[in-house]
Amino acid sequence: MGLRHPQDLEQWQRWERPSGIRRAVAAVRRRGRPAPTSDLRIVLPDGPARLLVALDSATPSSRAAVLEPARRLDQDHVAYLGPAGALERTGVAADASTAPVWDPEDPRLHRVERVLSIGAALAAGHAACTWAAARGLDSVVVQHGLLTPWAPPLPADTTLLSFTAEDGAFWASGRRDITVLPVGSQAMWEAAASARTPATAGERPLVFLGQLHGRELPRREIVGQTVRFLRRNPQAVYRPHPSETDLLSRAIHAAMQRSGTRFQETAVPLARLQADAVSVFSTGVLEAAQRGRRAWVHHDDPPPWLEEVWRRYGLARWGEEPTAPVRWSDREPAETVAEHLRTGEPR
């Protein structure tokens, strides 16, 4: 099993932005979210830029995948490209609105040797990867989350720094222009490093991690699985995903609360809570296991692709022994990625 769209980014974008009735539903989902921006800004170093880093967002997974390794390099030679908000929230720029607008012909970028991104699906990554391909530069993509068959295709002629060899083969999906180097996951490394002696099982809350924002499964199916689990396990509380802010998600939340579902306060990051976790296939399940918490996945009748995802990451089903922590690398992944960026090959 591999990607549904292994090479054609436009085909993947048509799936991601559906037409007809599904487009109308997607528009309702997006209502209430901040409007996306294509106003890309570039933060240039004091010296000649050798590396261009695409920062499409300030999410923890993006920070771990590309920002953490980039910060281990000589900042006199690293340029950062992204929306102003992402550049500011990651601390790359205090006020990115004053930074230059992205110009592919900017002579200050003529000595860049490679670009670093999480892929070409979002604006900054797409701009950087397209620019690199036109100039014959190295394109390095770092895996930042769990992979499903609906992951976007990799840019052409890319070096993929994947969590595992199996993940790399899955994402490459047989393409010969992709070089796979497994390095582990910085996010999982950091989760394991923050592990504490867990409280006894009876003292920990059970949290169901929401995924209403996802498109891999129909919204109705996700809602049904979530609500049925919470009804069968009244001790569990629901924690909405940070992306569940659109009009339809808020309406579903209101209906769940009217029916008695308890919601967890999300002001405190999940990483700082001593809670057990359940979800359909959230990265948070694997991160909870890394932190020494009990964690499971749940679906009453999972499709084959979902069972394959569970197997690839060792995710335990509800009712089984909890998910075991993973150890994908013996060296901190951010340092391995940084070494590859310095030399072209990780040690």
What does this structure look like?
The protein starts with 8 loop residues before the first helix and ends with a helix. The chain has twelve helices and eleven strands. The longest helix has 14 residues. It is an alpha/beta fold and 347 residues long.
Quick check: average pLDDT? 90
N to C succession of SSEs: HHEEHEHEHEEHEHEHEHEHEHH
Can you list the strand order of the major beta sheet? 1-3-2-4-5-6-7
Q: Based on helices, strands and strand pairing, what is the structural class?
A: alpha/beta
The total of beta strands comes to: 11
The helix fraction, in percent, is 25-40%
Q: Low-confidence runs (pLDDT<50, min 5 residues)?
A: 27-38
Shape: globular
Main sheet? 7 strands, mixed
User: DSSP helix count?
Assistant: 12
Strand content of the residues, in percent?
Answer: 5-15%
Q: Radius of gyration over alpha carbons?
A: 20 Å
- Measure the end-to-end span: 30 Å
In short:
With 347 residues, the protein is an alpha/beta fold.
Helix-strand layout with pairing:
Blueprint (H helix, E strand, L loop, with lengths): L8 H8 L3 H11 L9 E4 L7 E4 L5 H11 L7 E6 H6 L24 E4 L5 H13 L2 E5 L15 E5 L2 H8 L5 E5 L3 H8 L12 E4 L9 H14 L3 E4 L7 H12 L17 E4 L3 H8 L4 E3 L6 H10 L19 H11 L4
Parallel strand pairs: 2-3, 2-4, 4-5, 5-6, 6-7, 8-9, 8-10, 10-11
Antiparallel strand pairs: 1-3
